[in-house]
Fold this protein.
Amino acid sequence: MLSTTSVLPPSFLSVVLFSLLFYSTHSRCNTLITPAFISHRHSPRLLTQKPRRRGMNHDNRRHNTMIIKNNKKEEGDDTKNLAMMPDDVEAVRKAPSLDGKRPLQISTSSFLFTAMVGVPVWLTVVLPLTLVYQSGKALSSLGGNSSNRKNSGTTTSSMGNGGEDGDDVVASSTMESTAGADPTALNLIPLKERRYDVVLLGATGFTGSLAAKYLYQNYHHKNLKWAVAGRSKDKLETLLKRLLEPQDDLDNRSNHSSNTDTQQNYVDLLIVDTLKPNTIHDLVKDARCVITTAGPFCKYGSNVVEYCARYGTNYVDITGEIGWNKEMIVKWDALARHTGAKIVSLCGCDSIPWDMTYFKLAQMLQRDCHDTISKLTCYDNMKGGISGGTVDTMLTFLEGKYQTPRFPFDPYYRKSDGSKSQNKSKDMSSLFIGRKMELNGTKSKWTNPFVMSSINSEVIKRSHALSENSTTGDGQPLIYRESCVQQSFKEAFVTWFGTVLGVTALLNPITGGPIKKYFIPKPGEGPTEREMSEGYLLVNGVGEGVKGSIVESEFYFPVDAGYKDTARMVSEAGLCLALDSEKLPVQGGGFFSPSVAMGDVLLERLCKTGCKFASRVVHIQGQKLKSKL
């Protein structure tokens, strides 16, 4: 049984929203340190290194888990690679600088202004306004909550469709039941016989249009069978025309027609309104995988997940809405396992970079160190912007329009058989400014909290719970920490305080109203092409085993990971489920995290299309070196 409770989300979601706003105007950047597999700039081929034999000395055990193959294949040497030299670790570490990426730099005058003007204004004006407003709002909602519970009931079936006020509450549980429209086993089309490899839903949105462009530029000439879907036929046709016009000149492919009508016939248009269940059948029944960027997902995604589960259709999205994803697991996991549908959320910047980092480090500890991961620390170096769609999603939660369900136990601990996993995890990321701890125990650059760590830690919780071989054995949870690395204390302080000031200002109408009206982008708006090209993400992961072994990794995304590379990530995830099904680590259906569902198959796709990933053993158990994490 699910029961709902109104949740005022000023803590995490508020921090997320204004942190994104602040970073969009001040260029989020940090600096990282670590390991080695560097993908070649020109169509690399990835190989998985075979584990070295036991008995070799410690120096020889320090190695990369992923290697690339030289473009010039040498006869008789099928394993020649470019990532086995120690300086490859430095190469990945320096990748942002080599690519011309510029980290955030705060002038002394800006720092002093923030400290001497911003802090007093926050203490004397903004904070008191917000405290008074939020206190009054909480008190006034006490009576309303009890009456809402009486009207809404406590079970899923009694939640109804929201009544006349349904537009004000977008909890996915308010969606209409579609149980009467179940397809039968006889009319389900086998995945291999379906017309489309992938269908892209939300193609006219900001991130969706980037995904459409990515699929067209990279897979159209490879005879990918795909379609775009959305509510407006005119907007979809305009999108395809915009994709077609420059592409033939850029690619100079003789087999491409310059006729727009021909292109539109090849890339089908599907008109879908996800709030109207009867329009979703055509979206899912003939597709191997649905890729969706249409959020907020608690409003526009629930029916899509349901129908994918019913039709056995694979599904990926870019949501960061943890509560909604947990609700979908409780509702549809059993059905997805029955039909074989793989439902994989959080396939964008939330949270593939960190989930894959966990996956590779846990894998490396087990394979190469005969150890089990017990601690994971991530240091993020990034730069990016914000779109109106992201803001719309954050405001949905900030304004209390989503009602978070309660569950008997955390659905992210739910295993495929419905039982509770014994693999627990705990987010211990700092909320304050600190220092980066190097592997030798020294403190280096300044750090500040990363607001998305709460989401990343949840996805890692899910992966850890589903990885039965990763149990610590002593009942202790996996400890997760994450922070952003800055160039100096000035950048760390201004970034951290700017987030705090912005969040507080947004939580009262006097200061929040002007921010929403004049500074926050509208849906469909987002960073410019130049801004996205200047963005990047570098994730340094350090994993420690139960026995004391230490491994580290580096994961580099060369453009804005929040949008341009999110489009690439979710596209490759969808193609992975659609085209690489026989290679995947799991063959059955159900709800999975990205790394559990796709593992090395997805990592290889990402590295072939722009990413650089490296990992190495730093210390094997039994050595004198002690972890300083």
